[in-house]
Design a protein that fits this description.
29% helix; binds adenosine monophosphate; alpha+beta
Amino acid sequence: MGGPITLFSKIIKGEIPCFEIAKGDTWLAFLDINPRRAGHTLVVPHEPVRYLAELSTNQLADLWQGVVKTQTKLSAYFNTSDFLIGIHDGSLAGQEVPHVHVHVIPRTENDGGRTLLACWPNTPSIGSTEPDFTTLASLQNEILLTNK
Ligand code: AMP
């Protein structure tokens, strides 16, 4: 595990305590100390990189396996199969700790949580307007052209 020393690297090395929920050879899952709701867990790869895209294919596969293993543990306790899974991938997206981490948040009836739509509360609710297919097609073209 090279790279910068992050808060999460210190937790992984055991230098800072955490409330561990699960672990694998290349990742650790522990409770978030500022939970959005009970059971809010972070799954963190050992590799201390900021962006998801900096992980190798194997590290990515391991990380998502870690997410699913963590879900299994939380499912048994919270008696739910439903989760909000989120990543703030970079500071503009809201990332506070510059070390990839997946937020795994159990969802249960009337838990007071919202959905991804809450990130952009001023957009129309889904189904309330016709999709703008012209704009979507033009954006698709531009994105694909940029990547040619
Ligand atoms: P993000 O905004 O995606 O970077 O999330 C960082 C998360 O790390 C926040 O939800 C914090 O509450 C959480 N956090 C910060 N320090 C610790 C810690 N020592 N143990 C567990 N979670 C932490």
